[in-house]
Amino acid sequence: MSCHRRNRSYILFPPFSLQEKIEKLKYYVRDTFDSSHSLNAPPHLTLLAPFNVSEGNEKELANMLDNLCKNVEPLKITLHDFSNFPPRVIFIDVKKSEDLMHLQAEMEELARNHPEIFNYHYHEREFNPHVTLAFRDLSKANFKRAWWEFEGKEFREEFIAEKISLLRHEDKKWEVAEEFELVKKDSTDKRSKKRLP
Question: Angle, nearest 10°, between helix axes 16-33 and 140-150?
Fold first, then answer.
């Protein structure tokens, strides 16, 4: 069996209409501040930083997320204005609700408790939920210009996250590999069978 390792990440997607609104901001950043790297993935909120998994462990990985999502109800996500991580990252800020922080903490614990599956070796750090608009290829000079523009702007949106998506990195882009519905404890297992070949 192949043990080829691939990048994975767990994220929450906004609804399509909100993705379109955020995508327009990304294109504005690309055209105005010469930063396009965030366009390699649809607008999203990262729950678990990218990790590697061998093909032989993908089924067990899916089962773990199944079990977690059976005990998590859909949760409200609130996007609130803009913020940054100097010197290159500008993003839409996300409020740290109790439900969101608890979900992320559970996923982080799952990853750290199963290194043989997740190959997740990050130092522990505070979770700062956000939706990225620019990073990596944003120059320090353009970061200053962009932040001067975004700092005073408002962005207020809410949505209900009903599923967690597993992204797979292929050909320099992130694509949806599988999706897991968030359901109540007494609900039937509803893991989506949507998979890439």
Answer: 130
pTM of the model: 0.87
Record the tokens describing residue 84, joined without a space. Answer: 């940054």
Question: What radius of gyration do the chain's Cα atoms show?
Answer: 17
> CA angle, corner 10, sides to 139 and 195, nearest 5?
115
Tell me: cis bond preceding 14? Omega within 30 of 0 counts: no
Confidence check: pLDDT of 37 > 70: yes
The tokens describing 69, both together, are 């999502």
What SS3 state is found at 71?
coil
Between 171 and 178, the higher pLDDT residue = 178
Instruction: Look up residue 162 and give its two tokens.
Output: 């009903």
pLDDT-derived band at 68 (thresholds 50, 70, 90) equals very high
